[in-house]
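Worked problem 6 (solution included).
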Amino acid sequence: MDELNDLVIVDDERIIREGLRDMVDWRALGFRVAACFEDGREALEFIESNRVQAILTDIRMADVSGIDIARHISEKMPDVRVVILSGYRDFEYARGALRYHAWRYLLKPVDFGELETVFRELNREIGGGASGGREGALVPVVRRQFYSDLVSERFVSTAQLRYRSAELGLRVDFDRCTCALIVVRIGPTADGRGIDSISGVVRAGVLNSMVSQTRSFTLDEIMAFAGRVVAIGVSIEASDEETFRRRVAIEMKRVAAMLCEAFQVAIDVRTVASFGSLSGLLSSHPARLIEQALQERTPYRPAPGDESSDPTLRRVQEYLRENCSSDISLADAADRAFLSPVYFSKYFKEHTGISFTRYLAQLRVEKAIALFRENRHKVHEVGRLVGYRSPRYFSRVFKRMTGYSPREYCRRVLAMER
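Solution. The predicted structure is:
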């Protein structure tokens, strides 16, 4: 067997640190975890006296941050690869990661499929002795953040837009690059599962494939909302706005048809608006356009209630169904499965396609809808009956799951049913 690469994991949250250590088959990826630390300073002291090939680190820690680690490694140990985890979609962090040659920049919550793909690729690079291309590997992340800031109207002027682009090394002609805002919805096939039972890995796989399959324009995800993803397409070759819009429609239709077959999902793609230039996009209030596009709502339809064939999950699902109105925690459910909370979390998602938190929220929302149909309780009473002490939090979860506030759901959807 080939020699394994030594990896150091750094995160000041114990459950995340231990989860990363225990929930990934590092040996299969070509690595072994040499040490774990909750503090960046301790990690650097270890690395100074122990040869390692890679570091997986959180970006925000009390004393020495992930960016500090990346800077130290860049200056003194350029052959060590640094992969940064961040829960913050922020330009400054992406810029710091790029400046200090971090090998990848991944967002929390951790997508284990993406994490494994990154380290499998990293193992190939280390094995091949390649040392270049780290900046190029980060460009898609930085570019996605840049476009997200653009569409969210965080740039106050075209001058600021150009300055940030030049600082990041993004070669973009703001006056000539035709672009379009696109909404993608990945959902169930006619006889398939509900949209919430489609795993995050599948959804990410569809989006990543879309990005790689487009030819005449770049495609970047910029935000996600209620089962839909907003993306920006930017032209690679010069074209007028109308020609570009037709090209986007044709190419996205081709790619969507191919991926529907490959992933066995339904994909709906709609071009919200097109622009003759990125400067034109900035001046058109894109946030308002996206908000209007996302106003289209469909009634909530819960995922089918088929029980898992796994006896452990059946026991947990039965417990959740009977007690979802109570204050249930991940640890409570893990006890029923006789597993540690960290391992149970991964086990549950792998076998159901959704996280434990979302599964429990789905059960509670289904029960809330049943109570609304009885038409005997006020909204705050229903929230309490399905396990939410805070009416405001209940409304927020309900809207995230259905696209409607509880009152809107009763007034629009249930009124139509009646």
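Discussion: Residues 130-136, 191-197, 298-307 have pLDDT under 50 and may be disordered.
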